[in-house]
Amino acid sequence: MSSKSVVDMIEASSGVHFSGFHLNGVERRTAAAELTSTSTTESVSKQPFVIGVAGGAASGKTTVCDMIMEQLHDQRVVLVNQDSFYFHLSEDELSRVQEYNFDHPDAFNTEQLLSSMERLKCGQAVDIPKYDFRSYKNNVFPSKRVNPSDVIILEGILIFHDPRVRDLMNMKIFVDTDADVRLARRIRRDTVEKGRDIGTVLDQYSKFVKPAFDDFILPTKKYADIIIPRGGDNHVAIDLIVQHIRTKLGQHNLCKIYPNLYVIQSTFQIRGMHTLVRDTQTTKHDFVFYSDRLIRLVVEHGLGHLPFTEKQVITPTGSVYTGVDFCKRLCGVSIIRSGESMENALRACCKGIKIGKILIHREGDNGQQLIYEKLPKDISDRHVLLLDPILGTGNSAVQAISLLIKKGVPESNIIFLNLISAPQGVHVVCKSFPRIKIVTSEIEIGLNKDYRVIPGMGEFGDRYFGTDDDDQQMISLTTQLDVPPHKMREQPS
Question: Is residue 434's pLDDT more than 80?
């Protein structure tokens, strides 16, 4: 059995059949182009993953969509149906409804569909009409409010027909089902759900449905990245698709530019904790509690990037278990003051770990002055976890990393742990030190004109330690370090 991952198989298998799963090359889309200027203030926001599901009428598209949504239950997923965008029939068209071709591209209000999808991709809620197939009107039922989501599934017989709609999609799936099966399903659906008699259904099929499939729907099959035979019955194909989607959701756009950037996969729990720590109304106690939970997740993820050796042990049952042994030569270094909030989580994970300190004073927007460092004497022989909850401009981080390298620490032995990171800081650090690893829980929108991270968490150290910019709270620390209090102001990396 090949050791390739499922995603590798999906992205490398062009024109190959695997368990009934035909791949025409899953389209790789990088939603954000590489920024050439490290001082840029444009945002690099996370775009939703848009999946198009096309195929003939009654091919099983809705079943495939339902199965994908069920498996992605821990993500925000919405379904947008092309049927919602049928034109409202006029009185003249209603009088000749038997002659109206609902399977022709002109039957759909594509401009309204494009407008709704663009707004969803920009993070705006939209009202989607609900079409009534008995009265052939789109104003009988109230519109459905659809909110922005992580995944948008766009389903319909002709969603691949217009190139503007195709360009919105990150993945295009064509559900390929035998014509006889589709006809049997259509007869059952239209007679039961839409109240039509079988004669009308067969007449419409021969006059409009089959010719439209041959002329408009089947030709769009060539645009599909993935072709699923048998629709919802093909569980293997759907499982592989969901795994691929999960991999893509776990990648922020910057991760596609910098392979040394790792963003832990978001869940509702992580998103909920971020909501609490970002809320200005959150109490200090809750801010510390949920910050500690997030920090622990980041630390655990960072430890997973350390080297390991294989180790065998004997279990209480007398059996042999083959596992791994943790990296022994390890230390932490916190950038004072916010970085100290991450020390407890590191100590909880690594018993007896040595932790060094670095204090950097910010002078102006770009000037950095190292005014204190206390590091283990043998740090050059250790892997280093550099701790700072907020990566902002990246200037302080560059200063700290430069010091570690000057002390003899190999660049590849440094793992930089953050709670949140601004794209500008990621660019600065990754371009300056391409061999270090950055581990963070969320990528921010960017920096404002005051070089503060947005949406951000505010002054993290003040909120965590409860100082609220009160210099008197820092007397003890400044006395120990022999540093003037005005130089102890909080600055993100």
Answer: yes
